[in-house]
Amino acid sequence: MAINKNHEFEDLDSIKCSIVEKNVSADRVQFLKDLLTYNKYEVVVVASPAPKAAPVAAPAPVADGEQASAPPPAPTPEAIAPSTFTVGVTDLRFNPTNAVFGRSLHTPDGHVVTLAYWNQEETVSDDTIPYFEHGK
């Protein structure tokens, strides 16, 4: 069990994983998978569970002489493609916050991963200026 919210664990595809991010898009999954695989982490990606559906309302009473219309069939969960995913790594010591601010992740071009790069706000990691001086 995690001590705090920043270091979560979960079973993904029956593998105990440290959670990197939850409810991310397919593009974000590809970015994280490429970055973490380059840094020699084994990445596990699963579809996020679908949100719970609202209960179906009871049919309205039908007056004498009228026919009740059948409700449209609900789409099955298997027919709907997953839109969000959960990303985890098999190394239970991995913590994304510590990895970024501890400067332990590197980009394929050899730079240290910055917070802006991790959040995909910048396409190139500029690790020459400390993160706390970017706003000045």
Largest beta-sheet characterization: 4 strands, antiparallel
- Terminal CA distance: 39 Å
Radius of gyration: 22 Å
Number of helices: 3
Q: What order do the SSEs take from the amino end to the carboxyl end, as H and E?
A: EEHEEHH
Number of strands: 4
The neighbouring-strand order within the major sheet is: 1-2-4-3
Instruction: Extract low-pLDDT stretches.
Output: none
Strand content: 15-25%
Approximate shape: elongated
Overall pLDDT level: 81
Measured as a percent range, the helix fraction is: 10-25%
The helix-and-strand class reads alpha+beta
Q: How is the quaternary structure best described?
A: single chain
Topology:
Layout: E1 9-12, E2 15-24, H1 26-38, E3 43-47, E4 85-89, H2 96-101, H3 115-118
Antiparallel strand pairs: 1-2, 2-4, 3-4
Can you characterise this structure?
- By secondary structure, this protein is an alpha+beta fold.
- It is 17% helix and 18% strand.
- The longest helix has 13 residues, at 26-38.
In short:
This protein has 136 residues and is of the alpha+beta class.
List key phrases describing it:
4 strands; four-stranded antiparallel β-sheet; alpha+beta; 136 residues; 18% strand
